[in-house]
Specification:
The complex is a heterodimer of chains A (212) and B (275). Chain A is an alpha/beta fold and 212 residues long. In chain A, 32% of the residues lie in helices and 28% in strands. Chain A has one domain: P-loop containing nucleotide triphosphate hydrolases (Rossmann fold), CATH 3.40.50.300. Chain A is globular. Chain B is built from 12 helices and 2 strands. In chain B, a hairpin with a 2-residue loop joins strand 1 and strand 2. By secondary structure, chain B is mostly helical. The two termini of chain B are 24 Å apart. Chain B has a two-stranded antiparallel ribbon with strand order 1-2. The chains are: A alpha/beta (212), B mainly alpha (275).
Chain lengths: 212, 275
């Protein structure tokens, strides 16, 4: 589903990705690890089509994520490490997701309930005024409701309490079939049971890629 | 198209909740209220009285504050979203960059134009209620002029926002653009004129290429069609075109300038790294 070939991305003199090649197929559940500055976020952003590569290419189901961003992003769910300070209310954010991605609103509410987030009581509240955990729960609910073939999580459990983490892992287990799950994480033990592949990056290169 | 309207609608709603919008609306609404309270409509200066006098004062103040308001509130639109990772999340959904960018522009245009326009409508409605005669010609001209001036500065602001990485730098650039167009360019041109280094017509053309300057002259032209208050400069303008042509140019040119800058901003936005 995701094919990365000799991908190089530089920022001024700094090489963030150095000729990275790898492939992620259906039912690959990957933990992407590495020290800060290893190139994990740059790799994810390249998959999402945010960066123009200096060399090489990324193909998602054979499509270029920059030139065919709409088709590519229809099949990708993404949750960032820190929820951004979006000024929209929860209702408006849901409208944005529903209209742009054709997601079923009831499904977002369903996953929110599963994550113990009372969405109806907070519908008119600004997203940025929610607590860190509530924001993360909503973004996770949206990512699951989108029913994408590729789900990318950048440290998704950073703001979640242990109970919410358990809910999150349970829901993921129920929804992982025939998908690519890509976790960026510093704590392998948290996703160890979910992943079947571990990739380590350092200085912009993939230094280890193991199936477990 | 539904995504374009969605972005515009959400940006409009978000802006209307922001504190800057409240201040912005209060400034323009407050100006009109202040003019009525101060009895501007009762005064007579250079033959202008009533609502005409009020609108003249309103437009003179607007020319100074509207561009800077538009620049500082809009210039952080994309660069601010990029700064605080909103862009990273919002663009992870299947929305084209064209829909996102132009949707933001439409939403922001309505936000900045609405209070300025409604302040004039309030003046007309209140003026009519106290029995003043309504200067419709001036009202429609100013509506058009403010529309095109708003477009020009909105386009410039989005252009800056598309290439500047940090919102602080964007604010600095916006402030420089405003002060340059408001004062520096005039000072430089006056000094060139005094030194007689360039042909006067060329200097006047450069001055009128400034959207703030052409707005100012067009605003005067409706009260003073011969532009007598401008002295000999009026000959250069009115010898080369009629007053009506000049007014059309003063509406069309800033509008076109805004579109060119906005399109330039979009070209940069789609070619550069998004976050």
């Amino acid at each position: 589903m995701i094919k990365i070939e000799n991908l190089t991305k530089k920022f001024a003199q700094n090489i963030s990705l150095d000729s990275v090649s790898c492939e992620f197929k259906k039912n690959d559940y990957i933990a992407l690890m590495g020290a800060n500055g290893a190139g994990k976020t740059t790799l994810i952003r390249s998959i999402l089509g945010y960066y123009h590569p200096d060399e090489g290419q990324v193909l998602i189901d054979g499509r270029d994520p920059i030139k065919e961003r709409i088709e590519v992003l229809k099949n990708i769910s993404f949750v960032p490490q820190l929820p951004p300070p979006i000024k929209l209310s929860i209702g408006e954010l849901m409208d944005y997701v529903v209209t742009s991605s054709g997601v079923d609103k009831e499904l977002i509410k369903h996953y929110s309930n599963e994550m113990k987030l009372d969405i109806n009581a907070n519908m008119n509240k600004s997203f940025f005024k929610l607590s860190g955990g509530m924001k993360q729960k909503l973004l996770i609910s949206i990512s699951l409701a989108k029913k994408s073939g590729i789900i990318i999580y950048d440290e998704p459990t950073a703001n979640l309490d242990p109970k919410a983490r358990d809910d999150f892992y349970r829901l993921l287990k129920q929804n992982e079939e025939d998908k690519v799950l890509l976790f960026v994480t510093h704590r392998l033990e948290e996703v160890e049971e979910l992943v079947n592949r571990q990739i380590y990056m350092d200085l912009g290169k993939v230094v280890s890629d193991e199936r477990v | 198209m539904k995504n374009l309207y969605l972005i515009a609608y959400l940006d409009l709603k978000e802006s209307m909740r922001a504190k800057w919008f409240l201040v912005y609306s209060l400034v323009f609404g407050g100006l009109i209220a202040l003019f009525f309270i101060a009895g501007v409509t009762e005064s007579q200066v250079m033959g202008f009285s009533g609502l005409s006098r009020l609108l003249l004062m309103y437009i003179q103040i607007t020319i100074v504050i509207l561009p800077i308001f538009i620049l500082i509130t809009t210039v952080r639109s994309i660069s601010g979203d990029r700064d605080n990772h909103i862009l990273e999340y919002m663009l992870s959904f299947p929305i084209s960059l064209k829909q996102y960018y132009w949707g933001k522009i439409i939403g922001r245009f309505v936000t900045v134009y609405m209070p300025v326009f409604f302040a004039m409508v309030i003046a007309i409605v209140y003026g009519a209620s106290i029995g003043a005669s309504i200067p419709w010609g001036i009202f429609f001209l100013y509506t058009g002029l403010l529309f095109s001036l708003s477009s020009a500065f909105l386009g410039i602001a989005f252009f800056i926002s598309s290439f500047v990485k940090s919102s602080e730098v964007a604010l600095g650039v916006a402030f420089f653009v405003w002060i340059f167009l408001l004062a520096f360019i005039d000072i430089a041109l006056i000094s060139l004129m005094m030194q007689q280094r360039f042909n006067e017509e060329l200097i006047i053309m450069i001055a009128l290429a400034n959207p703030m300057e052409i707005f100012r002259v067009a605003a005067i032209s409706l009260f003073d069609p011969e532009l007598t208050v401008m002295g000999p400069v009026a000959f250069y303008i009115l010898d080369s075109m009629s007053q009506m042509t000049f007014v059309m140019l003063s509406i069309g040119y800033p509008l076109a300038l805004g579109l060119v800058f906005a399109y330039g901003g979009f070209s940069i936005f789609k070619k550069k790294d998004l976050v």
